[in-house]
Design goal:
The structure is a single chain. The chain is an all-alpha fold and 490 residues long. Helices cover 74% and strands 2% of the residues. The protein is built from 21 helices and four strands. A two-stranded antiparallel sheet has the order 1-4. Strands 2-3 form a two-stranded antiparallel ribbon. α7 runs antiparallel to α9, α7 crosses α10 and α14 crosses α18. The chain is globular and about 70 Å long. The mean pLDDT is 87.
Length: 490
Amino acid sequence: MGILSTLLLTPLLGILVLAIMPSENVSQIRFTANLFAVVIFLLSCWLVVDYNQLYGGIQYYEQFIYNPNFNSAFALGVDGLSLPMVVLASLLTLIALLASFSVVHSIKSYYVSILLLEFGMLGVFLSQDWSLFYIFWELTLIPLFLLIARWGGVNRNVASINFVLYTMGGSIFMLVSLFAISQYMPPHSGTLMSAMSEAAARMPLNEQIWVFLGFLIGFGVKMPIFPLHGWLPLAHVEAPSPISILLSGVLLKMGAYGLIRVVVMLPEAAQALQSVLVFIALFGMIYGGLLAWRQADMKAMVAYSSVSHMGVVLLGIATLNITGITGAVFQMTAHGLVAGAMFLLVGLLYERTHTRNILDYSSLVQVMPRFALFMTITLFAAMGLPGTVGFVAELHVVIGGFQQWGYLMVFLGLSILISSAYAMRTAGMLFTGPVKPQMREIEDLRIPELLAASLLVAGILFFGLWPSSLIDLSAVTIDDLSAIISQRIQ
């Protein structure tokens, strides 16, 4: 069994171990789940160390035919596009488990659901077969629905149903697009991504455009892009904070990751719809930023900010050039770290005060200095301050967008100003003014919480100050993908 199979099956092994453990042994269940999360994270780190950055193709490839009639394969592999997402998924799952000590009922079911969700997320990023990709894509719905519906807030049932209906509706469009491409495949040729890319190139342009629109709806719901974002604010607000970390940090990236694969598969259609993509991206960035600015609920603010920041990803993809796509891939990791840290810290604050209304806080720097430090750095990264990971990503997208559309990038600058406005407002209202009487006795971050926050903030600063370590990981793969796009659209 190869390293990728081992990585993918480790969450299932953790689920089996948890299943046979008595439900009364809460501390043992927590320890076991965290242990498996650490093992998965270390395996993903080993992949980064062993990965050959000079080769941009699929590495560690594994294949097993599981449906001989259709030649569908259990095909796994990673490249410079998927590897950062694998590490991000394993890291944020570990962070979510470290932040889950406040969960006090149905402990075993909760941890089993998170490990099942990790299994699905890893499967999406490791799959090299479209049918397998779709299976893992749909698999993530089950645990996420349970996690929101059982451990969420007051409106958790509405939020979980909205999420499932939106995502399943988008998945139908994705499935129809896959069937449309399969019509151009030789009989029994399978559904490998590489083979379907060759089949897509044989499609007439008008069919490619319709197929691309189907994928755009399917992946756009998950990203989410405007106007397919309706499920996001309610799901984020009602989901438990550890699940919001995974929802914003990883689940949204699944949509962006799939869209990049589709752009490489259907570059002519992407070029034909380029003006539509850039309009949706720019409008969504400003729209999401303005809605985030208006929110008093801090979770809702971060949720709407995700619409804005994922618009940056869509804009980078829409450039169809190396610099823009590099910025999009970098922004996927950057937003995962920043949004994950934001939801972690907001959730920890809510556990202590039972309010997310920003108007209820003031001068927490005197009461929670460690929290104030981490939150301030995270807010700086959210506004794209130089020295943080957000700045590097947005800079690449600005340059790539300017190469393609020139001064239209002034709208991207406007969205960054809006992001800075609500980030500075949040910092000011949280950490300035007199200490309110009800906030004088709040406990600062404890050791497990401090460890979780430190991991994310360290990533925000490290990749902001030394971005080449992350850019080099994806550079050759992005060069190869950009060459395919350029060759097809010339």
